[in-house]
Structure formats: C-alpha cells, structure tokens
Design goal:
single chain; alpha+beta; two-stranded antiparallel sheet
C-alpha cells in the first residue's frame, strides 16, 4: 500500500518528456513551448549603460523613397529631427480649485483695502474742510475691531426691574434676596501647559542613604580607572594633624621642610576651593537676567492686574517711588493723576505684583508731610550770639594772655502773646490738614486679564473725561467706574491696619 502511494506521487511530480519537432520544443498536446530568457542580476551601472544604448539606437529608415516626392530637392540638406516622445501628464485632484480659491481671496482683500482707503480719505477730507485740527493723527489697530453696542438695560439688571427695558420703571424689591448668584465659569483665554510629572517624595533618611550609595559607586568607578592606569592616583591629603602618620620617616628627617610643604598644600587646597566657588557664581549679567526672568514668570499665557486708588498723589516723592518701582519690577500700566481721583494700574507677573503691593500698602507712608509743609511748623534756626562790649585795655590783656574774651548770653526774649483761637468754619485750612492726614491707598480690584499696556506711563489728566478717554483707548474704562463707585464700608484697610 505504501509502495503504490509513493509510486503514484513519483509519477505525479515527474517532469513531462521533452519533444522536439522542427527544432522547436513542444508539449504532449503539440503546442510549442516558449523559453523566456533568464533574468540575470546586474549592477546599476550596467543598467544605465543598457538604457543609454537603447535610447541612442538609430532611427528606423523611412518607408518611402524621398525621390518620389515631387517637391524633393537633392541640393538642400534636410537635418534629421528626432522628436521627443510625448508623455501623458496627469493633474492632481484639487489643483485648479486651490488656484481659484487663492484668486478669490486675493480679490476680496484688494476690494476691502480699497473701501477702507476710500472711507479714510473721505473722513479726513470732511474733517479738514470743517476744522484742520480734527484730522486724526492715528488710531490704534486694536480700536478698529468692531465692538458690540452698549444696551439700554444690562441683562443682569433686567430680572429685577418692573420693565426690563427701562431703568426708570423701578425695582422689584421682592426679587432682591440675601442669596448670591454665582456666574458660570468661563474658560481662560489660553490653556496652561500640563505640569511635569512630580518626583517621588523621599524622607531625609532615604535621601541620605541614596546619596551614600551614589558616592560609593562613584568612588568604586574611580578606583577601577586607577587600577587600569586610566587615571593617576590622587595625592595624599596631608595635614598638620596626620603629618607623622602619613609621611612617617620623611617627617622625622626634616620636619621644618615637611611642615612648610604641608602648609603650602593646605593653602593650595583652600585656593582651589575658592576658585571653584567663584567659577560657579553667576556673572552680573546672568544675575540680572535671572532676576528679570523671575519677575516676568507666568506672563506668557495670562497676566495679573491690580488697580489701586489713592486720595492724594500731589507729593512728587510718593509719585516717583510708585513710578520707579513699577519700572524696576518690569510692570506695565499707568498712573493717572486727576483732580477728582488718582488711579494706579499695574500688570505683570505674580511675584512682581506681590512686591508692588507691599510697596503701596506697607512701605509708603501716605500721611507723611512733605518737607515744604513741615518747614512751616518747625522753629527758626537760632541766630549767632553777639559779642559783649569790653574795654580796650581788658581785651589787650586777654589777648596777651592767650585766653579768648568772654561771651555774654543775651537775655531771653519775652514770650509772644497767645491769641485766643476763634471758631473756624468747616471750610477752613485746619480741615484741609485733617483731610490730608486721612490719605490712604485702596485696592480696587485684582484679577487675571489679557495685557492692555505695553509699558508703565505717567499721565496727567486735567478732567475726568480726559482720563476716561485714555482708559477707553486701552479698553479698561471699567477700572475707573469700579474705583469711583467704591463705598466707604467696602474700602480696603490702610497701611496702619495691615499686619
């Protein structure tokens, strides 16, 4: 059974017999067998040569005889022209669509630019026709953005008004309760980066053990390099305490020279230690850059802002302190001086704002009197005492003896009469002094906003509309309203009440 099965398999896989008829190989059915040429592997330079030889093959001869052409002139030498093969180039999908979109966008930009230029020219021409001083010298690009119109009634006030479209209709007092409505949280303008993975906290004992293992491993590697001859062995650390134990016989032979050498090595080790410490120190430029980097931290994604209100900023010393500290802390904002109210707005990093807040609420004494005001209450300087009239003989005798002449003290002047104080009206100068003593700095608002100022500026505003216009140009007019609407019971504590 096994023999028949193996015999059948041998017959099955046996190649067919080779039959040759008329010098051609045919199969059992008589069909010719085509033997393709075997593909032989060759190098890249041979393939290039074969391709070049195939391209430089002579063109096929013309099938027709040119002498049969009636317009053929044998005197004219016609050059042979080898026309290149025309290949098919396919255009990628979406090519012409992109070109059309680009052309449409370009046309829209050109039309928008032309319209804006026409409007600007027309406005300037109208202003120049009426009054040449009304021509705008320049408007910030941020102000060209379209803004929503101010509604007649704010949405948060409409719920408690009798008529939700009119403030004069009255307020529904039954809707005012002691409950506070918390607004919906708003996402920040930019997402903060993901914090790096926190390292595993280790106890002091574990840190000490890990440090010991690392030092042992480094010492073991150093010893292996010394044994292999890759590093010189370190010199013995000789001190006056281990002098005899390390040197031994050499210290006994010449102790003076050995002590001198040991002191020299100790001084050299101390010098090397100090040089390493100096090399690790930061240069003045690096220290300044590090300090600036700490003050400007966390200002890439969001900016902290603080608004302060000051009753009186006429003292130039106090305004100078505010200005110079804001610039040194790399803060942006402004200091507005107005007869009705003084406002200080600062923007920057959290550390810089903490330092500036300590300056405004602790370090500056806002009730301090200027030197010009203090001179009025000080006593006048004492005049030089006059010399007494002594006879000439006595003066000559004292001069010959070398002793100075005696000086007689003048009699004290009689005290001036004290006038009885009259009752002063409420608008007298004493009330002004009391109001000046109540000068204080108040924190109006602190929060996180986008940056509105490029640097810190000092602005003198003669009227309130001028101050409002300056803040409106920087899109922070609400700061003025918040500072103006502060109530007495909501005022922040003064510098004397701070801890």
């Amino acid at each position: 059974m096994g023999t028949k099965y193996s015999q059948k398999n041998e017959d099955r896989f046996k190649p067919p017999p080779l039959i040759v008829v008329n010098n051609m190989e045919v199969d059992l059915q008589g069909n010719p067998i085509s033997n393709p040429k075997p593909v032989i592997a060759t190098t890249l330079i041979n393939k290039r040569y074969q391709k070049k030889s195939a391209n430089t093959a002579p063109p096929p001869p013309l099938e027709t005889d040119p002498s049969l052409n009636p317009f053929y002139d044998p005197r004219v030498n016609t050059p042979k022209v080898n026309r290149p093969k025309r290949s098919i180039h396919f255009v990628e999908q979406g090519t012409y669509i992109k070109k059309a979109q680009h052309l449409r966008k370009k046309a829209q930009i050109a039309a928008w630019t032309a319209n804006s230029n026409e409007n600007k020219d027309s406005d300037m021409s109208e202003a120049a026709g009426e009054n040449p001083n009304l021509i705008a010298l320049g408007v910030k690009e941020d102000l060209l953005k379209p803004q929503e119109p101010i509604p007649d009634v704010e949405w948060w006030d409409a719920a408690i008004l009798v008529d939700k479209y009119d403030y004069s209709s009255g307020v529904r007092e039954e809707h005012i309760t002691l409950y506070v409505e918390h607004p919906a949280p708003i996402k920040p303008p930019a997402d903060a980066p993901t914090p790096p993975p926190q390292a595993l906290k280790m106890t002091k004992k574990e840190l000490k053990k890990l440090r010991k293992l690392n030092r042992m491993e480094a010492q073991r590697e150093r010893q292996e390099r010394i044994l292999l001859g890759l590093e010189k062995p370190p010199e013995a650390k000789v001190k006056l305490s281990n002098l005899m134990r390390v040197l031994g016989q050499e210290a006994v032979q010449d102790p003076t020279q050995v002590e001198k050498e040991v002191r020299k090595q100790m001084a050299q080790r101390l010098k090397n230690h100090q040089l390493r410490n100096e090399a690790r120190k930061l240069t003045p430029q690096e220290r300044k850059a590090k300090k600036k980097r700490k003050l400007l931290e966390d200002t890439g994604l969001e900016t902290k802002v603080a608004v302060y209100r000051i009753n009186d900023l006429t003292d130039p010393r106090k305004s100078y302190k505010v200005d110079i500290n804001a610039r040194e802390n790399h803060l942006s904002g402004c200091m507005l001086l107005c007869p009705t109210m003084n406002l200080v707005i600062v923007e920057g990093g959290p550390k810089a704002l903490r330092r500036f807040k300590k300056l405004m609420l602790r370090r500056i004494d806002w009730n301090a009197v200027a030197p010009s005001d203090r001179n009025e209450t000080q006593d006048p300087l004492p005049l030089p005492l006059p010399l007494t009239d002594q006879p000439l003989s006595q003066e000559n005798s004292e001069a010959s003896s070398g002793t100075p002449p005696p000086v007689a003290l003048p009699p004290p002047p009689p005290p001036p009469p004290q006038p009885t104080p009259d009752p002063l009206p409420p608008s007298s100068s004493s009330d002004k002094i009391e109001e000046k003593k109540d000068n204080k700095c108040l924190v109006v608002w602190e929060g996180t906003v986008l940056k509105h100022f490029k640097n810190f500026r000092f602005e003198q505003c003669p009227t309130e509309p001028v101050a409002r216009k300056y803040l409106r140009d920087h899109a922070v007019e609400s700061y003025w309203d918040m500072a103006k609407n502060m109530k007495d019971e909501l005022l922040a504590p003064t510098s004397q009440q701070l801890p």
